[in-house]
Amino acid sequence: MKYGIAIFPSKKLQDAANSYRKRYDPNYALIPPHLTLKQPFEATDERIRDISRELRQIAQNHQPVTLSIRKFSSFSPVNNVIYLKVEPTEQILSLYDALHDEYFSDVEPEYAFVPHITIGQKLSDDEHSDVLGSLKMTDFQHEETVDRFHLLYQLENGSWTVFETFLLGKEGL
Questions:
Q1: Domain range for 6
Q2: Which of 43, 101, 121, 151 has the smallest set of CB atoms within 10 Å of its CB?
Q3: How many other C-beta atoms are found inside a 10 Å radius of the C-beta of residue 146?
Q4: pTM of the prediction?
Q5: pLDDT by residue (tens digit) across 31-84?
Q6: What are the backbone angles phi and psi of residue 85, rounded to the nearest 5°?
Q7: Are the C-beta atoms of residues 41 and 4 closer than 8 Å to each other?
Q8: Residue 19 placed within a domain
Q9: pLDDT tens digits, one per residue of 133-173
Q10: Which of these, 31, 103, 4, lies nearest to 61 by C-alpha position?
Q11: How confident is the model over 91-141, as pLDDT tens digits?
């Protein structure tokens, strides 16, 4: 089965992201707005039990993270993805690193980690340029603290759902 690890922001931020995703993201119906901490990977039922135990330990050793968003950005020219740029705080980077240590080294990231929430993808060059140009003139300021991350699995229809939730910090014991 295919799994992934992500942070879901507050409903307020998800609603703001979805106001763009409805128009610009073909994956809008497959998964809510999220910050990917680990790209999709395959795991057996036995392996996922071991991974869950390790994720509980990681959660206990990390405090809640602050999501601070100040602007829209893009991965162009690598690909036409537009996103809300999440400031790469020490908290987020530490959590990401823990999810990519030797225990999880069987899945190497395809790209360098850039914390973000995708709002548009698979856009033509012209559409990407127009949408990004318009969004860069928009003032977007948001900050919140998130106290959990989620192990997700992919359903047969391509959508993602929560398999298990992990609370950050001591209260996650």
A1: 2-168
A2: 101
A3: 18
A4: 0.92
A5: 999 999 999 999 999 999 999 999 999 999 999 999 999 999 999 988 999 999
A6: -80, 120
A7: yes
A8: yes
A9: 999 999 899 999 999 999 999 999 999 999 999 999 965 44
A10: 103
A11: 999 999 999 886 676 667 778 899 999 999 999 999 999 999 999 999 899
The token pair at 143 is 């900050």
- Structure-block tokens of residue 84: 């809300």
Q: Where does the chain show beta strands of DSSP type E?
A: 2-7, 35-42, 65-74, 82-86, 116-120, 142-146, 148-154, 160-167
104: which 2 tokens? 């999880």
- Is position 173 within any domain? no
Number of domains in the chain: 1
Q: What are phi and psi of 40, to 5 degrees?
A: -55, 140
**Catalytic (active-site) positions:** 34, 116
Residues 6+ apart with CB under 8 A from 82: 20, 24, 72, 73, 74, 118, 119, 120, 121, 123, 128, 131, 132, 135
